[in-house]
Amino acid sequence: MGNTELWRLTATETATATRAGDVTAEAVTRAALDRMAAANPALNAVVDPLDAEALERARALDAARAGGAAPGPLHGVPVTIKINVDQKGHATSNGVVALKDLIAPDDAPLVKNLQDAGAVVIGRTNTPEFSFRADTDNPLFGRTHNPWGDHVSAGGSSGGAGAAVMAGIGALAHGNDIGGSLRFPAAANGAVTVKPGLGRIAAWNPSQTAERGMLAQAMSVQGLLTRCAEDLHLSMPTMIAPDPRDPFHVPLPWRGEASDGPIRVGFTRDTFGFDLHPEVALALDAARDALRDAGYTVEEIDPPAMPETGSDGYRALMGEVKALMGPDIRANGSATINAIFDEYFDQFTPFEGTDLLRMMARRSHYAREWSLFLDRYPLVLCPFLPQPFFAPDRDVQGAEGVREVLGSAIWSYAMNFVGLPAGCVPARLSELSAGPQPISVQIVGRRWREDLVVDACAAVEQRLGRMCDALWARMG
């Protein structure tokens, strides 16, 4: 197997080869770094390359294995880390100029867990300022471009991660999600992801000087973007390893109990007043048919407590953001991000004071309604966005731009508010007038059953194919 081919391997294929001794961690790492050197200049996805550090670690892994040490489950797998999470000795800038010298004193739990499993961090990926846009651009590092072309945004806030993994820069890409920041870039670039539920992955940045707000703690989760669903089954057990620095982590195994019979899937095209684009409708139908072919029972449903779960949840989050992050955004954010937040606050009127406290309490009502519903339908297949993914900078184009980018994403942030797992998987490649782009669907799951969500994503992928293959054929 030549080095020119190694970057194309999935994480599962890479780990199988390195653990068996068929290829070295150093060879895999060099191939990933070579691919980064070739693809990243046009994308600006990795903004802190770690070539020397990565090769040193890969050699150490090879030496340990040669000395008899048992290789970890991710032995030699190249990964990227988003720049809003602590990695010892590197800046956790979060796309903010004022934070460019905020050097992490230690690794965040997920970075430690990945490296303990044998992964090799090859670079750190771009994010918008404060990780609070569905598009990725900032004054510190500039714009991340989508490998499908400049006609479509790379998404955000984990836009660098999504563009990198789909371009072949690392087999796994870390990201996080408070309102859609794993699923937006997955949909934009054609990656596969699962937003974990609340408490599944230990979270903590050692560089923090204060705790986050309660809704941020309840809605924000860490995760991975991959090129195939199988890689989530390989890597997520590592991601959910416990860490005492997160006192609310839930130490459950990755795999839950097997179903006694066919799993019932609720299916809806409801977009709550937003027009459903024909290409999105075709993607939903294709995913529905794939699940039926795989043995799932798919039934049309009316989703519970929607769209209030989403709209009330995001207004509550905006209330907390305005109170706790607002002064920092005003002081350290660019004119662009301040203008976007002005539109956010206009469109998602923040709950404040007693109203905010009441809505934080009402969150349990919405979560209960969803829990009761998912007791009958363990999975729900639904749109992610009602339209194909938007163009770069759509969210700086006034109220209509913000409405298209975030206002229509009710299915996204609703799942953050109630803390449910939600996967995003591509189900169609559309040849639109502006250019080609993937169309993704969302699969929501029962609490603690991310494994069921990934199984369903894998069933869709098995019938419809991996999006990276079509992308690489175009990239050359």
UniProtKB/TrEMBL annotation:
Any one GO molecular-function label of the UniProt entry: hydrolase activity
Gene3D superfamilies documented for this protein: Amidase signature (AS) domain
Transmembrane segments: none
InterPro entries found in the cross-reference section: Amidase_dom, AS_sf
Residue span, Amidase domain: 28-453
Keywords: Hydrolase
Pfam families in the record: Amidase (PF01425)
Source organism superkingdom: Bacteria
Protein name: Amidase
Organism taxonomic ancestry: Bacteria, Pseudomonadati, Pseudomonadota, Alphaproteobacteria, Rhodobacterales
